[in-house]
Amino acid sequence: MKVLPAKxxxxxxxxxxxxxxxxxALILSALAESESTLYNLLRCLDTExxxxxxxxxxxxxxxxxxxxxxxxxxxxEPIEPxxxxxxxxxxxxxxxxxxxxxxxxxxxxxxxxxxxxxxxIIEPLEMMGARFMARQxxxxxxxxxxxxxxxxxxxxxxxxxxxxxxxxxxxxxASGRTIVIEPAKSRDHTxxxxxxxxxPVEVEGTRVxxxxxxxxxxxxxxxxxxxxxxxxxxxxxxxxNARITITGVGLNPTRTGLLEIMKLMGANxxxxxxxxxxxxxxxVRVETSSNMKGITVxxxxxxxxxxxxxxxxxxxxxxxxxxxxxxxxxxxxxxSDRIKVLVENFRKxxxxxxxxxxxxxxxxxxKIRGGEVDPEGDHRxxxxxSIAGLxxxxxxxxxxxxxxxxxxxxxxEALEKVxx
Length: 420
Ligand code: S3P
What we know:
Elements: E1 2-3, E2 9-14, H1 19-31, E3 36-39, H2 45-56, E4 60-63, E5 67-71, E6 82-83, H3 88-99, E7 104-108, H4 119-128, E8 131-135, E9 139-145, E10 153-155, H5 161-171, E11 178-181, H6 189-196, E12 201-204, E13 207-210, E14 219-221, H7 226-238, E15 242-250, H8 257-265, E16 268-276, E17 280-287, H9 309-318, E18 322-325, H10 338-348, E19 354-356, E20 359-363, E21 371-373, H11 379-390, E22 396-398, H12 411-418
Parallel strand pairs: 2-15, 3-14, 6-7, 10-11, 21-22
Antiparallel strand pairs: 1-22, 3-5, 4-5, 7-9, 8-9, 11-13, 12-13, 15-17, 16-17, 18-20, 19-20
Helix pairs in contact: 1-2, 1-3, 1-6, 2-3, 3-4, 3-5, 4-5, 7-9, 7-11
Bound molecules: shikimate-3-phosphate.
């Protein structure tokens, strides 16, 4: 896909439903005691994996992804291994669930997912009483022998909503209470949803305490995904002739780190919460921001914008002075090594950038010449470099751009809409 420079970007758009919340809505509705109705679910490659695995365990789904009825059934042991595709959230959250059922299951994934660390969930789930066999004790394929679990108190070495959620989901069926303490706060969708369902969950800063519980089915509408909106928000700030409004997007404070950072950089970005049920939802407006200043992203904000951090690199290209991201080694453990993919491809399109083990540094007011990039099958990197094409001199050709379907199947249609 060759993305050419755009003269103008404008318009109002709604972005696809939130991926994190969709996974959780599917899983929790399958664990409920009665039927649920879910509205506006995200259909993408990742969420299809969670849906299909729950189906293989016995859950029945009716309707489509705009309105899906979920009929939970007691899980039965599947005879086939379960395919997690490219999805870390499917793997880690489902591992927590499967650890708490006396069943034998095997999880496997694509080549990217098979390189991502699973020790981080194996360790706490084994402490709770499940047994795991994984390639090199850390990677997929991975076999799980579930068990009747005991609650634990666990300090996670990294701030990770996937790890926290895996432990909390396992804790639902354990004996005794489960406590998770994180080094910094990660996204809190699981805690919010469980609390809303009547599960005793107490949150105090970075500590979550959960008592085992059952819960009834529920109704839920999924808000727009701020991580998908992020590409358009950044485009609106860096393009010389831009005005974009995004409506109906989730504005959970554990997800809005990018907006806070853009504000600190001096971008013309505003957001307002218009609705607050389970999750705050609202609109974001952004316009050309020619006076942005470079920034060092404070380390405690890193987990609140983990998926958006590479976009800070793109903002840094257009800001004045230095933009620095440190304390973000987790980026190397995502769908690709996002620090390496960012640095290598920036250099290919004429942008100078310095690489650190835990981040990167960019000196601003550079031009993006353009050229060919390889996002290494990583959906978010493919979308980032497509945005770079719109603000480049000669255009950016993105190899294997189809990987955007992992989270945002209609990304290029949405892009065409804003460039007219
Ligand atoms: C997610 C948590 C984050 C994020 C991922 C989705 C989730 O991963 O990068 O895209 O839905 O819980 P980590 O928990 O590994 O930080």
